[in-house]
Amino acid sequence: MNKFIKENGKALSILLSWLFINLLCLVFSVKSSHNKELYPFIEFDPYEKIGIRQTYDVSEFLLYGFTPIIIFVVIKLIYFEKK
User: Fold this and answer.
1) CA 8, CA 21: separation in Å to the nearest integer?
2) Residues with Cβ within 8 Å of residue 40, at least 6 apart in sequence
3) Each residue of 23-76: pLDDT tens digit?
4) CA–CA separation, 6 vs 78, rounded Å?
5) pTM
6) CA-CA distance, 30 to 54, in Å (whole number)?
7) What is the 3-state secondary structure (H, E, C) of the chain?
8) Mutual orientation of helices 9-27 and 66-82 as an angle, nearest 10°?
9) How far apart are the first and last CA of the chain?
């Protein structure tokens, strides 16, 4: 385990920071009727103020928070299989 952390410390710290940022977005989001769409792909009405606080929910947290971690693990597993 220590060897894995030493070899991948920078990547792990970036991934954990990214997960923490997404967790903060989830905690500070408000429940809204706009939660039916993923954040950057929402249709903005010029008369409504819709931002990340109104649209971010658990689906975005799971997608944006855990997808990079899953990709990292898959790459590491593929690299480990080749060794």
Assistant:
1) 20
2) none
3) 998 888 877 655 566 666 666 565 666 666 677 788 888 999 999 999 999 998
4) 19
5) 0.74
6) 5
7) CHHHHHHCHHHHHHHHHHHHHHHHHHHCCCCCCCCCCCHHHCCCCCCCCCCHHHHCCHHHHHHHHHHHHHHHHHHHHHHHHHC
8) 160
9) 17
